[in-house]
Amino acid sequence: MTASAQLPTLTTGTKFKVIKDNETWLTTISDLAALLSAGAGTVTSVDVSGGSTGLTTSGGPITSSGTITVAGTLDADNGGTGFASYTVGDVLQANTTSTLAKLAAVATGNVLISGGVGTVSSWGKVGLTTHVSGTLPVANGGTNLTAVGGNGTVLGSDGSANLYLSPTITTAAAAIAFSRNGSNLELTLPNAGASTRGTVSTTTQTFAGGKTVTAIFTAAAGVTSTSDATNAAYFANGVSGSSWTSDDDGGTLDQTHSFIKVHTLSEAETYALPACNATRNGWEFTFQKTGTDTFGLVIDPNGSETFADGASTKTMYSVNNTATCKCLWNGSTGVWGFTN
Fold it and tell me: Is the pLDDT of residue 197 over 90?
């Protein structure tokens, strides 16, 4: 046979131990029930209000049972936003010390710019002079320079950093090229020479290599040419010409014309040749008498000079008679050659 214990049934008279601080005693369940019912009451009506929060309520008051519903938009003063809906891109900001507002949308490409502590932000373009500071380095696409160069300078490099250079020109005997010399960007333009390509200067120069001129070539003071074993000193591939004049009055000749055409004379006329010296060595004058008169065309060397045959003058008669005089300088003295 198995024995089992049975729990006693609790009644209002059942006693249990109570402990308070350092005191203990026995009391009954009826005493406990009386204590609990001493502060009891009943609810006859319950209602709530949204107050100044921006919320509203419905469903109250409740007298027995029911549901109170809260609706509306909680304002910023009570932890809300004050807005019931939003669109994509909306941004909220405080435009006073207590109220939120939506920041108006603007065109694409603008950014939100802070006006500083206590100032409302706004959309706008980033100003490089007002919003950006510092110097953009070369590695990020900048120049790493904080000031512009002087008037006429150009932005260049010394191989390790950017710098401003002043363009200059040198005439050093070197290849035509740019090079940096301190703060100068030098363009070397040497004077052309027999072994150096370069520019034409105002000094005496010797050019190497054949040159072809496709337009009129004008020399202000004269052209001297020297032949070699295979090339004539001067070769005209076509007609050649020289300056000429008509002169029936005689006088002293100069470098202006090399051909003198003399028409009908009313008396003998003398044409004086310039001095034959080292400067005029090789000069030629050609005379042609076209008149049918019987007067003489007299050619007279300068001062005490004579012709190569010792004659002091030469005289031409007859129509279409032609003669050439050429200065022959031997290094110390000069005479005029005469060809008729």
Answer: no
Contact 178, 185 (CB under 8 A): yes
pTM of the model: 0.48
Position 25 pLDDT exceeds 70: yes
Mean pLDDT, rounded, of the chain: 84
Parent domain of 320: 244-339
DSSP code of residue 29: H
Across 173-188, average pLDDT = 87
CATH at 322: 2.60.120.640
CB burial of residue 60 (10 Å; 0-12, 13-18, 19+):
middle
Using CA of residue 160, residue 166, residue 172, residue 176, what is the dihedral sign?
A: positive
In-domain check, residue 79? no
3-state secondary structure 157-182: ECCCCEEEEEEEEECCCCCCEEEEEC
Structure tokens at 260: 């003198």
